[in-house]
């Protein structure tokens, strides 16, 4: 039984790509390295940084400035509002939103309907 998706990423300004910690695995880094014809070590240095606390030790994708969110994934095209490495995207991105519903998409569609504006983007 296939579950119908209840969201459309093409109508979203990239909310999930604005998460401050987009953790990647060594496998994800290798996939990105292959995509850019780099060594895994080069890709790791260029595209990620180490985030470490008492509880967490992760490689995180670097961000860039964004005109909608303060920052967004470095692989996100801020004009087209699309992922530029979709075929090579990390597993966490492939799995998001972990089901057939996206709470942000539902909130966005609710706000757009009530604002009477198909392009409305709620701001912080």
Automatic annotation (TrEMBL):
InterPro entries: Puta_zinc/iron-chelating_dom. It comes from the Bacteria. This is YkgJ family cysteine cluster protein.
């Amino acid at each position: 039984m296939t579950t119908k998706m209840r969201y459309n990423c093409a109508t979203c300004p990239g909310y999930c790509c604005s998460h401050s910690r987009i953790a990647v695995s060594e496998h994800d880094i290798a996939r990105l390295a292959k995509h850019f014809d780099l060594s895994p070590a080069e890709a790791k240095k260029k595209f990620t940084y180490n985030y470490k606390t008492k509880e967490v030790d992760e490689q995180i994708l670097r961000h860039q400035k964004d005109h909608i969110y303060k920052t967004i994934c470095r692989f996100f095209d801020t004009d087209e509002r699309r992922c530029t490495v979709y075929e090579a995207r990390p597993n966490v991105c492939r799995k998001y939103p972990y089901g057939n519903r996206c709470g942000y998409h539902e909130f966005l569609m609710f706000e757009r309907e009530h604002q009477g504006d198909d392009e409305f983007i709620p701001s912080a």
